[in-house]
Description:
Structural class: alpha/beta
Number of domains: 1
Oligomer: single chain
Number of helices: 13
Order of helices and strands: HHHEHEHEEHEHEHHHHEHH
CATH topology: Rossmann fold
Strand content: 5-15%
Bound molecules: adenosine-5'-triphosphate, magnesium ion
CATH architecture: 3-Layer(aba) Sandwich
Strand order of the largest sheet: 2-5-6-1-7
Shape: globular
Helix content: 55-70%
CATH superfamily: P-loop containing nucleotide triphosphate hydrolases
Distance between the termini: 18 Å
Amino acid sequence: xxxxxxxxxxxxxxxxxxxxxxxxxxxxxxxxxxxxxxxxxxxxxxxxxxxxxxxxxxxxxxxxxxxxxxxxxxxxxxxxxxxxxxxxxxxxxxxxxxxxxxxxxxxxxxxxxxxxxxxxxxxxxxxxxxxxxxxxxxxxxxxxxxxxxxxxxxxxxxxxxxxxxxxxxxxxxxxxxxxxxxxxxxxxxxxxxxxxxxxxxxxxxxxxxxxxxxxxxxxxxxx
Length: 223
Ligand SMILES: Nc1ncnc2c1ncn2[C@@H]1O[C@H](COP(=O)(O)OP(=O)(O)OP(=O)(O)O)[C@@H](O)[C@H]1O
Ligand SMILES: [Mg+2]
């Protein structure tokens, strides 16, 4: 955990981290230290580039160093893999894909809600997360979607968003959706019980990195 958090980016936490990032870092360290004596995972919520995936990976690395079996999946690729393994004759997806997701002791599911929420997507996410919920298994989620819409939304805009089919265009509109709308109310409700929500605010770290390159300080960041 320590290595991943500091390696090559030693300024990030000690000089530039805002309060929400420090809180998230604290929650991540506590999870690693206290595991297995904890009963809730984390729901890391924040805008693009705020460091959610980085933190989720750092948590898994910290747990793996303690010998805990962990699995990381970006939720879109997991859903794609499940879809690709679907067998129209048996009408099931191969358990080869799903079994480890159900069984691993700790799962990190990155970018929850990023896939366009069709009925199949919602059902599949529900099935996966509900299975882990029933078995009281620890899951760490990251998402761009919060519980409140951050900008005012008018009905006209809502219709427009529903018509947007491409993920790229949707991602420009992501602040207009809530997590409830992306994953369904039943699933969001389970997440309250499964996870502590940790919100990260602040500027896109990728953009900061780019600015520093422009300012000629690239060496500090690329070490
Ligand atoms: N604590 C950190 N120390 C060093 N680099 C970091 C840290 N947190 C994030 N970064 C770097 O900042 C960039 C953005 O972080 P990350 O991918 O975790 O963002 P994200 O919140 O998951 O964004 P998105 O919502 O787009 O998935 C990455 O290149 C990552 O390696
Ligand atoms: Mg990410």
